[in-house]
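User: I'll paste a sequence; please echo it back and then give the predicted structure.

Assistant: Echoing your sequence first, then the prediction.
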Amino acid sequence: MSHPPTDFQEIAPGVWAVLTQFDGGSFEGWLGEGFAPNSGFVVGDDGVLVIDPRMFKRQAEEVAAKVAQVAGRPVRHVVNTHWHNDHVFGNEGFGGATIIAGRKTFEALAFLATVDIVQVWADDPIFAPVADQIRAVNLILPHVAFEGELVLRVGGRRVVLRSLGGGETADTIVAYLPEEKILFASDLVLNGTPPYFGDPTVSVNDWIASLEAVERMAPRVIVPGHGPLAGLDDVRRMADDLRDYRRQVIELARERLTPQQIKERVRLRDYPGYPWFPREALLSGVDVIYKELKR
């Protein structure tokens, strides 16, 4: 099984987007050797900050090799934007770096380590093509946790780590470079890829609110969690899709339909590059929205 190719783009001097290239044609192709998310790094005078280490050590080492090539400086800090495996398993590829996470991600990963989450994920049938690679993962937990906002200095450049609230998980950290107006948005922003509603803490209401917060920040360039580089129009489109989904569920719930009946009538957006993506995975958003209506 081949590894999805990686595109390294310098989107401002010393600021790099790490984009996984994938045409979406098959589940096997998407999974590859781990459905590597987008990542990025910022070069400073005496070290480098990496935003999201990707899924596996070899993917992290691919980023580390590019850092060595273009910067020749050590990776001093790694940010885990949230606790999903494709954003944290690569921690072990950056030995010696300080790993930073939001408080909720820090606590979630600490708990998941107690239940041997690596083995749980390895045993999940969906990950069967990469089960052996998952079993080989040495899960490295974050060293530093923060709440709200943390400002880092990478050389003379400010990098603002900020919790915008919930979405795909209960909390996702974004990395914002205010002078360059570049935002590493992680999975709050998905450019053309289907949303994931499978996390037990997912909230469609919070996701929409977080996307509205991204709009207010007005970044010039957005590095999404998955998909090509994005702009504000892509953020608005994603927010509108979620609003339309929520509106449909609310209207059908007013007809006293059950979640299963709603799933039979709701209209889902097409994701042309992902014909294999399970319809039931997209329909699980109905359960999320319906539960939020009942709170």
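The chain is about 35% helix and 25% strand. The longest strand covers residues 182-190.
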